[in-house]
Design brief:
The structure holds four protein chains of four kinds.
Chain B (H helix, E strand, L loop, with lengths): L5 H9 L17 E7 L3 H14 L4 E4 L23 H15 L1 H5 L10 E5 L2 H16 L5 E3 L1 H7 L15 E5 L7 H14 L3 E3 L4 E6 L5 E6 L2 E10 L5 H6 L8 E10 L9 E4 L4 E5 L5 E7 L11 H14 L7 E12 L6 E4 L5 E5 L9 H14 L13 H4 L5 H4 L5
Parallel strand pairs in B: 1-2, 1-9, 2-6, 3-11, 9-16
Antiparallel strand pairs in B: 3-5, 4-5, 7-8, 8-9, 10-13, 10-14, 11-12, 12-13, 15-16
Helix pairs in contact in B: 2-7, 2-10, 3-10
Chain C lengths: L12 E10 L2 E7 L3 H7 L4 E4 L6 E3 L11 E5 L5 E6 L9 E4 L14 H4 L8 H4 L7 H13 L14 E13 L3 H12 L4 E4 L16 E2 L2 E2 H14 L3 E4 L2 E7 L3 E7 L14 E13 L3 E3 L12 E3 H11 L7 E5 L3 H11 L6 E4 L6 H9 L3 E4 L1 E7 L6 E8 L2 E9 L2 E5 L2 E3 L2 H5 L4 E4 L4 E4 L6 E3 L9 H18 L11 E2 L24 E3 L4 E2 H9 L5 H8 L12 H12 L3 H4 L11 E2 H5 L16 H6 L3 E5 L2 E6 L7 H14 L2 E4 L4 E6 L3 H8 L12 E7 L5 E11 L2 E6 L4 H15 L6 E4 L4 E7 L3 H5 L3 E2 L12 E7 L2 E7 L7 E7 L3 H12 L5 E2 L2 H10 L40 H4 L4 E8 L11 E3 L10 E11 L4 E9 L8 E5 L4 E7 L15
Parallel strand pairs in C: 1-7, 8-9, 8-15, 9-12, 15-28, 17-24, 18-19, 18-24, 19-20, 35-46
Antiparallel strand pairs in C: 1-2, 3-4, 5-6, 5-7, 10-11, 10-29, 13-14, 14-15, 16-25, 21-22, 22-23, 26-27, 30-31, 33-34, 35-41, 36-39, 36-40, 37-38, 38-39, 41-45, 42-43, 43-44, 44-45, 47-50, 47-52, 48-49, 49-50, 51-52
Helix pairs in contact in C: 5-6, 5-11, 7-8, 12-13, 12-14, 18-23
Chain D lengths: L2 E4 L4 E4 L4 E5 L13 H9 L7 E7 L7 E7 L4 E7 L7 H6 L7
Antiparallel strand pairs in D: 1-2, 3-4, 4-5, 5-6
The chains are: A alpha+beta, B alpha/beta, C alpha+beta, D alpha+beta.
Bound molecules: flavin-adenine dinucleotide, nicotinamide-adenine-dinucleotide, flavin mononucleotide (FMN) and zinc ion.
């Protein structure tokens, strides 16, 4: 008799995404930025066409845009008149897309946050194992995990282990 | 006091153990003492013992809020060594080591001091440099410590994994052969028995709630759960709680108290011959005479007086142990516990006089004061008896935090570049 | 051998037999058995030997509180573990079990000689002897004591299994799936709360598994159980996990669970972890851990065949195993009577029920008599006989409070029950208080510190009806507190077995109590007289009693012994039990594998290994690596046949002669931007920054507020309000955190922001006279000629088509550049430079060569030449302090008396008299090598190398008043010889005029 | 592992995201040079280390990255309040008296 009712199901795919433009934007008052809607609640993300702005802290946003828009985004940010800081970090990190019905279980092997409560379309900086990561929830069962480049292979190795574990079904 | 001997043990066996008497009487406090010591840990009890034995001061009370030896003395991983870098530390800890070697005979109480050797592992170039510095300094200070290659370390401690491709390869080790472990509880009991036999009152379950001072500023005694107890001199040796007690005398200390955890495995037949410490991987391990692996963990990051500690630290500690000793991965943890350690900014103790006449303090031993027990107790007794520090504890003043003459062993083992 | 298995009884699969071995002998059990139940079914009671006296021992319990039946278990290579409780280990095909702590065999053990000398080995005996002669301790006594230690043997191979871990969040966590826990999970689950229900056992049900005759909601207990489990399985918000022990209850309702996944399987699926640690954060916790049965304490209560009555009932009803044909029952509680009745129903012939109470419920006595069982009330038990299996029980009538004449009752098992202890271990982990209940003579939950409910037998309730009701209420309350609309369901129970009992100390005896071996802690061989001896010797605190006798310190952690120990100690002390108190319960609830705690942190994933974008190239090109902080860095690049020394010499020569290339990507980088960037830099670093021009760099020195050197690095000004700060590799995170701390909490008014860009950039250093020649063709957008781009210049440009930040800096003393390109291009740039560099015999070098080259120039390495006790002046860096600055971090500390006093250690150069001798780093320096020990040491060697460029050894050292000793001869005493060396005030050994750097 | 309410993220979050940062409300003196050696020592090293309510700093390092303050009871390790940097220190007795004891 083996009572093991759980929501576990096998199947998460892990894909490394192609580089995008990423800017760490810092400023005191988001209202002072023309041409960019910056959400003010930590964790909230807004989108302007292909550009997104994720609020990571009360004065911090991660702006993401396609590679092709890099110059345009930088130009927009350069136009901010209020005191601010815009630093390109496109190469600082690697993003993995994690997708599948067991994605929450996969993430629960390393992330102490209650991700079931993270609304689709939002995100947060948190930890996976000992690595700092930014997680965004793209759909119910798709997350993007962004991690500093030198930590990526460690995080990837753990994700792969967890993926195999989920597949084993215990 | 019944003198302990093999003959007495045989007598006990033949008489249904009727021949034994209390090792220390349970005392109610007198109205006044020459010296009151706050804290019946190894340090406090030891100081009372040496006050009586070496200075003839026997009108002494040792007062504890709980049961004697129930503080860090009763909850530490018992690593004893003296291979410290700085002259000041080396003198102090080596003095203690000298006393450890004859403590059982001195106390007529077997504290099971075991010179099984302490091996400190080097895992990177920086560790190697740092430990070599210790080895050289120790040698010129007359302190036993030697450098071993990884292979030699493995010979000394067969369960060690010296695979060069490990995440933290063993690049060598410093070995102090004279170092080792002791039976922690027996240290408190032996000192308590020895002190009591010489007239010291040991008063348990009696929290000291305040230190009282006279109009001239001098101490007059202590306020306790059992009322006021007058004292000409008061020595506070309350480990994690020292700053709380000293505050009542108006003395603020550079101390913060943190929970430090330790754990034991289920008992196994002897497999682990020595003590191994790895500062880089955060693993501290030995095997007790009962057979458990005794493992030291870390401090929680926040100030706390709860003898608890969190789960992530234990996970990290056991991962580290398994990394260096993969054969132990299937061993089981039997029990884990916490103690409250008081930490100074330079990680060295404060031992000596205070700005308050008649008030002495012994604290700040952090995660490593068990090894100092006999030495610290001995020089504390001297300081209290003579109202001036022994040359060995003279550098461990409170003033050093004002003037900048810190004794920073941790900083000396600086972090890698 | 006769079988004690009863067909058609229990929950085992009678059609599926399982082969296993015990001490090499092959046996058969059934699927669903534990190792213990299978052995009992084969008539094997002798399962172990005790710790100290090596007494033969049989199984006592049927759960994780088992102190005796501990075995080594094994499944193939790398899969052996000692001290496995046979009562928990489920049978699997091919399981190999071996008994422990005996030699040569379990039945005949030489160590049992200790048993005859038991009176010598009373509590605390070793503190009193083994002290003479003094030298015998190290050589004779201690080795003997140590050899006697331990139970099982350690594994000797690396573990072949893997372990997992999982975070989990839930509204309600229910610990224990007995009736109370099941009812709680049903109440909370039906209300829609997310629920996790866990049980340590292989199957849920708790007591219900041993009590099939109870009828719940009109159904036999097991049918009700199946239905309840089916309902729970159907609720998507409920997770039920068995073989899962709640091991520890931590802060704010974090509960650690150890889940055993494969040990019970005949074959484990590949990639399946052996065990998993769950870290569950619950809004509400319901503890329904039940109660633990206590043994009775009497002489000979430890013989094989003497066991807990509840365990016998479990073996019978759950496993279909009769523990004996003629059991005698000894009890202080009604529950054992039911065990006897069940056994009689199953065909055993209980010989007698001996109850210490003078009177019990007549329903019980009537039933016993009806079943033909002799009833003996108001008795005491004073002994047993039988060597490897109990043969008889010695019973005395109590007369006037004293034992009367004895009578021996023949039997083949003794089932004892000393009452039940509510299991409050996890509750106690939270530092919540226990309260002594005078009526029940047990500890019950007192004031709680967490959002927790206790339900069922854990709260002293008895009987399935009250337990179910209590569980339902607790579950509903927990769900409501977690924000769900919940009501407690009701259950009707018939054929319930309620009951009561009394709490005893050791049973009265007519023998010499000093000789009686009445065990309390079976595993550690602690007897009642040991407790009394401890008290006689002044151990008046229960904590002292525990430590002096080791009562409760065995692998069951006092589950069986704590309360009996307390009752006897309180009697000896003449105090009521609550004045004596219990010792502290600590995690884990049951012993838990190290691997489960370690989880995924093993081998390659033990800890992060940070690698640069160029790491792969270095590996492919034979680099030796060294770990630096979390990074691995190329240390040197040996050619075939070269040792480190040869490789480093070659690399050094190449950089000085032509050009070397070095991966500096690990250096920390922080972009400091914003209107007030200069002000911020002025306050953080010792140096002045206001006048640093855009496009220029400066060496920056960072102190702690205590005035000691913390970090350094070259800092470039990219624009009026933007600095590119570099830090040491190991210091990057610390420095950023420290800067953020000051910025956010001391100077929140400053409009400055910090961004870590360590990993944005790959950093490649080109160093050597040909560095410019090599680099120039790749650079677009700026002129890097000596005049246009002098030493300490910085510019943004394009290098090899990649956007770049180009620094003209040198840590080698040669003409040098550091090219920063976006990390993804790092490897490509490196390869291009390597290719183009062939014409200059370009040479990749590692950290060791970097260290030599910088030492030749006297540049310090923070953490090697400084160690957290050096001030800027000590390190000869006074020039780096902005003289006009009113304040910077650490400035005030530099004025403290001991920071300006004479006698500080200062960094100087040290040249050995014999130029061929390379000093050892860390070697100590003295003025007089012939002084006795302890010697007065003046300082130590911080850096020391063979310098190819200078054709001699060089060293740096910190020496007391070192700069005043210019030209002095000092000594470095080594174990085998003393080396003499001269102090040189300047640490710059190579090209002091800096002609090469400005080339 | 503590559960900590971040006043910026407005959520209870696991301790693993946070870094402890020592006693709170110890402002760096505006003019350190004006301090005596004893006053400077007090700033550098003397800490209240109470057995009771401790005002302390935490950083939501792996989160919004903000430093903030907390009042925590050091015997049971329970947070009584967390509040943003710069906000005034709440009254310890009032916090202890608050019925839930875990006011945000
Ligand atoms: C888990 C752990 C592992 C350790 N490992 C090692 C190790 O391997 N090696 C090593 O050398 N050191 C180690 N240590 C440190 C070592 O245990 C201590 O430094 C040392 O035991 C301190 O001894 P003590 O006598 O000063 O303090 P304690 O033994 O703590 O005694 C202080 C006493 O003061 C009493 N007290 C407090 N307040 C009051 C009051 N108001 N009134 C009356 N009494 C009061 C306490 O009840 C206590 O009994 C470890 C510590 C811990 C917690
Ligand atoms: N023989 C008897 O007559 C007898 C004995 C005991 C209980 N009872 C009756 O049964 C009722 C008990 O019901 P209950 O539900 O309170 O207790 P229970 O003993 O039926 O269930 C408790 C369950 O909790 C599990 N457990 C304990 N600690 C655990 C941990 N740390 N992690 C995971 N699981 C753990 C145990 O394995 C057990 O299955 C009592 O009221 C009593 O009437 C009868
Ligand atoms: C060196 C050492 C060895 C120990 N060995 C055991 C042991 O074998 N069994 C056990 O239960 N506890 C052992 N303990 C732990 C104590 O039981 C206890 O947890 C510790 O003294 C702290 O006290 P507390 O848990 O009562 O607060 C040991 C402790 C130390 C310091
Ligand atoms: Zn936050």
């Amino acid at each position: 008799m083996n009572a093991m009712t759980s929501t576990l199901a096998a199947g998460v795919t892990i894909t490394e995404l192609a580089p995008t433009t990423r800017i760490a934007l810092r400023l005191a008052d988001p209202a002072t930025v023309p041409g960019l809607s910056l959400p003010t609640e930590v964790g909230a993300r807004s989108a302007d066409g292909s550009r997104t702005a994720l609020c990571l802290g009360p004065d911090e946003w991660l702006i993401e845009a396609p590679e092709a828009d890099r110059a345009a985004v930088l130009a927009t940010l350069a136009g901010i008149s209020a005191p601010h800081s815009a630093v390109e970090v496109s190469d600082r990190e690697i993003t993995y897309a994690l997708e599948g019905p067991a994605v929450l279980d996969l993430l629960a092997t390393g992330c102490p946050r209650d991700l079931a409560r993270m609304p689709v379309g939002s995100g947060a900086r948190t930890v996976f194992d000992t690595a700092q990561v930014v997680l965004t929830r793209e759909t119910d069962d798709r997350f993007h995990l962004t991690v500093w480049r030198s930590f990526a292979s460690h995080v990837r190795a753990l994700l792969d282990l967890a993926q195999r574990e989920l597949a084993a079904g215990l | 006091m019944t003198h302990f001997s093999f003959a007495q043990v045989v007598k006990g066996a033949l008489t249904g153990q009727k021949n034994w008497t209390p090792q220390w009487p349970d005392r109610e406090p007198k109205a006044a003492y020459d010296v009151v010591i706050v804290g019946a840990g190894g340090h406090g009890l030891g100081a009372a013992y040496y006050l009586a034995k070496e200075h003839g001061i026997t009108n002494v009370a040792v007062i504890d809020k709980g049961w004697l030896g129930g503080g860090n003395t009763g909850r530490n991983t018992t690593i004893i060594r003296s291979n410290y870098l700085y002259d000041e530390s080396a003198r102090l800890y080596d003095h203690a080591l000298d006393l450890w070697e004859n403590l059982s005979q001195d106390l007529n109480y077997n504290v099971m001091f075991s010179k099984r050797g302490v091996l400190m592992l080097a895992h990177n170039v920086h560790d190697v440099q740092s430990f070599q510095r210790h080895v050289h300094s120790n040698r010129l200070n007359g302190v036993d410590n030697q450098w071993l290659s990884a292979k030699e370390a493995k010979l000394f401690c067969p369960p060690l994994d010296i695979n060069p491709n490990a995440r933290y390869p063993v690049m060598g080790a410093a070995l102090q052969r004279r170092a080792g472990t002791a039976r922690h509880d027996a240290v408190a009991w032996g000192y308590a028995r020895g002190a009591a036999a010489r007239g010291v009152d040991i008063i348990q379950n009696c929290p000291v709630t305040a230190i009282r001072r006279g109009p001239d500023g001098r101490v007059t005694g202590v306020e306790t759960a059992k009322g006021f107890i007058a004292a000409k001199k008061v020595a506070v040796s309350a480990a994690g709680h020292t700053s709380v007690v000293m505050e009542t005398a108006g003395v603020r200390l550079p101390l913060e108290s943190y929970p430090l955890q330790a754990l034991v495995s289920e008992p196994i037949k002897p497999i682990f011959p020595c003590v191994v410490m790895s500062n880089s991987v955060h693993a501290y391990i030995s095997q007790s005479d009962k057979g458990e692996l005794v493992i030291g963990s870390g401090t929680d990051q926040y100030v706390s007086y709860s003898q608890r500690g969190g789960l992530p630290l234990i996970e990290h500690t056991l991962a580290a142990i398994c990394e260096i000793f993969p054969i132990f991965r299937r061993m089981r943890m039997l029990r884990k516990w916490g103690g409250i350690v008081d930490v100074t900014p330079d990680r060295s103790a404060i031992l000596g006089k205070t700005p308050v006449p008649g008030l002495y303090v012994n604290c700040g031993w952090g995660t490593g004061g068990f090894k100092a027990t006999p030495g610290a107790a001995h020089v504390l007794a001297h300081t209290v008896a003579k109202d001036e520090p022994h040359p060995i504890n003279a550098p461990f003043t409170l003033e050093r935090f004002t003037t900048g003459r810190l004794i920073d062993e941790a900083a000396a083992a600086a972090v890698a570049h | 051998m006769t079988s004690y298995r009863l067909p058609n009884r229990g929950r085992v699969d009678h059609r599926k037999s399982v082969r296993f071995t015990f001490d090499g002998k092959s046996y058969q059990g059934l699927a669903g058995d534990t190792l213990a139940s299978a052995l009992l079914a084969n008539g094997v009671h002798l399962m172990g030997r005790s710790f100290k006296y090596h007494r033969p021992r049989g199984v006592v319990s049927a759960g994780s509180d088992e102190p005796n039946a501990l075995m080594g278990t094994r499944r193939g290579p790398g899969r052996f573990e000692p001290n496995t409780r046979a009562t928990i280990q489920e049978l699997r095909a091919g399981l190999e079990a071996t008994s422990q702590n005996r030699w040569p065999s379990l039945a005949f053990d030489m160590g049992a000689i200790n048993d005859n000398m038991g009176s010598l080995f009373s509590a605390g005996f070793y503190y009193k002897t083994f002290m003479w002669p003094r030298s015998f301790w190290d050589r004779v006594y201690e080795p003997i004591i140590r050899n006697a230690a331990g139970l099982g043997v350690s594994p000797t191979e690396s573990d072949a299994d893997t372990y997992a871990s999982r975070f989990h969040h839930t509204d309600v966590l229910v610990v224990g799936a007995g009736p109370a826990g099941l009812a709680a999970a049903l109440a909370a689950g039906r209300a829609g709360a997310s629920v996790m229900l866990v049980d340590e056992n292989a199957e849920p049900g708790g007591t219900l598994l041993s009590e099939p005759s109870v009828v719940i909601d009109g159904k036999p207990a097991w049918d009700w159980l199946a239905q309840a489990l089916a309902e729970l399985a159907g609720l998507p918000n409920v997770t039920v996990m068995t073989r899962t022990t709640a091991i520890g209850y931590y802060h704010q309702n974090l509960v650690g669970l150890a889940q055993r996944l494969t040990d019970h399987l005949d074959t484990a699926p590949s990639d399946a972890p052996r065990e998993r640690m769950w870290k569950v954060r619950a809004r509400e916790v319901v503890l329904a851990q039940g109660a633990l049965e206590k043994p009775l304490v009497f002489d000979g209560n430890d013989r094989p065949g003497v066991m807990l009555a509840g365990a016998a009932q479990t073996y019978l009803n759950r496993f279909g195993v009769k523990v004996g044909d003629r059991p005698a029952i000894v009890t202080a509680h009604d529950s054992a009577w039911h065990a006897a009745f069940d056994l009689a129903d199953a065909g055993a012939k209980p010989v007698a029920i001996v109850d210490v109470r003078p009177a019990v419920d007549t329903a019980l006595t009537d039933r016993a008599r009806a079943l033909g069982i002799e009833v003996l009330l108001g008795r005491t038990v004073t002994g047993t006989s039988g060597r490897l299996r109990v043969k008889s029980l010695r019973v005395n009538r109590m007369e006037g409070g004293k034992p009367g004449a004895p009578r021996d009752i023949g039997c083949d098992a003794v089932l004892m029950c000393g009452g039940w202890t509510p299991c409050l271990h996890l509750f106690s982990h939270t530092q919540s208080k226990l309260a002594w209940d005078e009526a029940l003579q047990v500890y019950l939950p007192g004031k709680k510190t967490e959002a927790v409910q206790i339900a069922g037998a854990g709260r002293g309730l008895w009987g399935i009806a009250s337990t179910l009701e209590d569980g339902a209420t607790a579950g509903a309350t927990a769900a409501r507190d977690a924000g769900h609309d919940a009501t407690a369901q009701t259950h009707t129970v018939t054929a319930d077995r309620t009951g009561s009992g009394v709490t005893c100390k050791e049973l009265p005896t007519d023998k010499d109590p000093g000789k009686a071996k009445a065990f309390i802690d079976f595993q550690n061989d602690v007897t009642a007289k040991d407790i009394r001896l401890a008290v006689r010797e002044g151990m008046r605190s229960i904590e002292h009693v525990k430590r002096y006798t080791t009562n409760g310190m065995a692998t069951d952690q006092g589950k069986m012994s704590n309360v009996n120990g307390l009752m006897i100690a309180s009697d000896a002390l003449g105090k009521a039990p609550p004045q004596v108190g219990l010792t502290t319960f600590r995690p884990p609830y049951s012993p838990t594998t190290f691997g489960t705690f370690a989880g995924y942190h093993k081998d390659a994933t033990f800890e992060v290994t940070r690698r640069t974008p160029i790491d792969g190239w270095a590996e492919a090109n034979g680099a030796a690596f060294e770990p630096v902080a979390l990074w691995r860095r190329a240390w040197y690049f040996p050619k075939p046949g070269e040792d480190m020394h040869a490789a480093v010499s070659r690399e050094c020569r190449a950089a000085r002669a032509s050009v070397g290339i070095f991966d500096a990507s690990t250096l920390g980088k922080i972009e400091v931007t914003g209107r007030d960037a200069v002000t911020f830099m002025e306050r953080m670093y010792t140096n002045p920054w206001a006048k640093l021009g855009v496009g220029r760099c400066r060496y920056g020195l960072l102190l702690g507020e205590d005035g000691f050197i913390r970090d350094d690095g070259v800092i470039g000004r990219l624009s009026a309000d933007r600095f590119h700060v570099t830090t040491t590799t190991g210091g990057a995170a610390r420095v950023l955190n420290m800067m953020e701390d000051y910025l956010q909490t001391e100077w929140p008014d400053l409009k400055v922001w910090l961004t870590s860009t360590t990993e944005q950039w790959a950093t490649i250093a080109l160093q050597g006279p040909n560095a410019r020649k090599l680099l120039e063709p790749f650079v677009e957008g700026i002129d890097i000629s000596a005049e246009a781009f002098p030493h300490m210049a910085v510019a943004e440009c394009t290098v090899a088509g990649f956007p770049a930040r180009l620094f003209r800096i040198s840590f080698t003393g040669e003409l040098g550049f550091e090219v920063n390109v976006p990390a993804r291009h790092g490897l490509a740039l490196w390869e291009k430079l390597m290719a183009a560099g062939q014409q200059y015999d370009i040479c990749p070098y590692g950290t060791e060569t970097m260290h030599v080259l910088r030492a030749e120039k006297g540049y310090i390495i923070v953490g090697q030449d400084t160690d957290g006790t050096l001030t800027p002046d000590d390190a000869g860096l006074t020039w780096a302090i902005g003289k006009a600055k009113r304040d910077f971090v650490g400035k005030r500390s530099l004025a403290r008396p001991d920071m300006v006093a004479k006698g500080r250690k200062q960094l100087v150069g040290l040249l050995t008299d014999d130029p061929k001798v390379v000093l050892q780093e860390g070697a100590q320096i003295v003025a007089d090598p012939s002084q006795p020990k302890p010697m007065t040491m003046l300082g130590h060697v911080t850096s020391s190398y063979w310098s190819d460029a200078l054709g001699r050894s060089i060293a740096m050292a910190v020496v007391v008043d070192g700069r005043d000793r210019d030209g002095q001869t000092l000594h470095v005493p080594m174990p085998d010889r003393t080396i003499t060396a001269k102090v040189v005030k300047s640490t710059v050994f190579y090209d002091p005029e800096n002609t090469r750097i400005s080339a | 592992m503590l559960l900590i309410y971040c006043p910026y993220c407005e959520q209870d979050l696991p301790e693993l995201e946070f870094a402890y940062a020592g006693e709170a409300h110890i402002a760096r003196p505006a003019d350190p040079a004006a301090l005596s050696d004893e006053e400077w020592r007090d700033f550098l090293f003397i800490r209240s280390n109470p057995k009771g309510v401790h005002f302390e700093r935490w950083r939501h390092l792996n989160g919004c990255a903000r430093f903030f303050n907390a009042a925590r009871e050091t015997v049971g390790d329970k947070f009584l309040a967390t509040y943003k940097a710069g906000e005034p220190r709440p009254d310890a007795d009032a916090l202890l008296a608050s019925p839930t004891g875990d006011a945000k």
